[in-house]
Specification:
Pfam families: PanZ. There is one protein chain. By secondary structure, the chain is mainly beta. It has one domain. It is built from 1 helix and 3 strands. The protein has a 3-stranded antiparallel beta sheet. The termini are far apart.
């Protein structure tokens, strides 16, 4: 089965808040490498 990777990012007010890598395999996907900006984590 062929796998592909995509990266999705979240932005708000022109700032990058976080990103996640998605590995697609057929009709399923797995999320990994979730990253959230440090200052965003502290804001609740």
């Amino acid at each position: 089965m062929l796998k592909s990777h995509r990266i999705y990012a979240a932005r708000f007010n022109e700032r990058l808040l976080g990103a996640v890598r998605v590995t697609l395999s057929g009709t399923q996907g797995a999320l990994d490498s979730l990253r959230v900006r440090e200052i965003t984590r502290r804001r609740g």
